[in-house]
Amino acid sequence: xxMSRRKRAQAFRNAQYAVLxxxxxxxxxxxxxxxxxxxxxxxxxxxxxxxxxFTTALVNxxxxxxxxxxxxxxxxxxxxxxxxxxxxxxxxxxxxxIEFFRGVPALLVFIALGFGVPLAFNIRFExxxxxxIALGLxxxxxxxxxxxxxxxxxxxxQVEAARSLGMSPGRTNLTVVIPxxxxxxxxxxxxxxxxLTKDSSLIYLLGLTRDEYxxxxxxxxxxxxxxxxxxxxxxxxxxxxxxxxxxxxxxYLEGRAGRKQEQGLKVTA
Amino acid sequence: MxxxxxxxxxxxxxxxxxxxxxxxDMSVRRGEVVCIIGPSGSGKSTxxxxxxxxxxxxxxxxxxxxxxxxxxxxxxxxARRGIGMVFQAFNLFGHLSVLENLTIAxxxxxxxxxxxxxxxxxxxxxxxxxxxxxxxxxxQLSGGQQQRAAIARxxxxxxxxxxxDEPTSALxxxxxxxxxxxxxxxxxxxxxxxxxxxxxxxxREVADKVLFMDDGGIxxxxxxxxxxxxxxxxxxxxxxxxxxxxxxxxxxGAET
Lengths: 269, 256
Known about the structure:
The structure holds two protein chains of two kinds.
Chain A: H1 5-30, H2 33-40, H3 43-49, H4 52-83, H5 88-103, H6 106-121, H7 127-153, H8 156-164, H9 169-199, H10 215-226, H11 230-263
Helix pairs in contact in A: 4-5, 4-7, 4-9, 4-10, 4-11, 5-7, 6-7, 7-9, 8-9, 9-11, 10-11
Chain B: E1 4-15, E2 18-29, E3 33-37, H1 44-51, E4 59-64, E5 67-68, H2 76-81, E6 83-86, H3 98-108, H4 114-127, H5 143-155, E7 161-165, H6 173-188, E8 193-196, H7 200-206, E9 209-214, E10 217-222, H8 224-229, H9 234-244
């Protein structure tokens, strides 16, 4: 007997719900809940992480990330301008840099900087510098491409209009191109910051003192001390404390950039 | 006779292998309205864009308002202050309000103070019928309003000559009239204008001189009654027949 289109859709939906319920029941019955709760939600283990996980680890993660992002933004801007340069060698240098640092794992950069450079050149950076440089190197490559794309996304007609009004190239960039590029760039730039926040966890392998612990290392030490997964879960939640608001900020900025151009502003000029 | 505001001598321009302008000589006198007509690809827009040096000519001499724009040592930013440009795509600054679009170059380039720039801007918005849109963002305006705002922006710099690059080609048909009215009013006020256009009626009624361009050269020039009314050249006749009476053009055998 042929089913109507509506009946068939309904039957298919019902089947999906049935599978879902079966799955949940199976997990509920079969899982070893005592062990799971003990591992992930161990109150004693959690209590031992607080407050240091916030006052030391979370703060350090934010510091490492901010330093790296700041450096990455500066170097990224220079690279973006080099990529847009009319002097070919500048473009080549920027391209090689960007391709290299986008292509190699961030982990490799951290190893090179944390162990390779001190060994080869007999210099030691303190941990904040190492973190800033390593994250800056990796971040700048991505940020440069974001900035370049944003600058190029400003229509050429905007530049022509500004130049035909007698603005110099520098003045045109400052008053017409960069403000408009900035609005295009902000959302993807926020995403770079989220990626960098997560990459900052790689610092853990550089050998940190207790005061230098960031979230991943702190969670790792917590695991050793308590034999519980709870510190790892807590560390993960702390990352979400940073990344989820940033994600919302990114979407908010995206929406505002669009609205501002459409709705108009109160003119104060 | 009045002095020439725009003087073009033996202008050549190529894009790579393609020669777009093959030796153009023309001039626009003070207070004159010159319309350039011709098929697409004939080099009209390129000629206009060479006049304010948005395109760099390969050879030839262009003098505008006393500035030899083709001289490598000329202060091109200074020369452009006196040359208003209106684009097909309006090119209003999307991040600035209409009023700010009109004041930014006055303040940053001409160094006028805010009060003076505002006054000039509002006077020009009034002139193009957009006085009440000063606080709007460009994206809130219709195409016709955007183009009139763009005209007001160029006028706010007190240019000696206005260049129009197909100012109505991107507009919906019912919005073309507003823009043409503003341009006609400007012409009546004595503004020197060089206009690339497909609006034959505008050219016929407003222009002092019409240039017909084809294949990178000026084929025919003269008063509109002659060039549009009684064209002498075969190419001009063929073009006008296709533009003025598009439903009666034979599909094959049309001269190109």
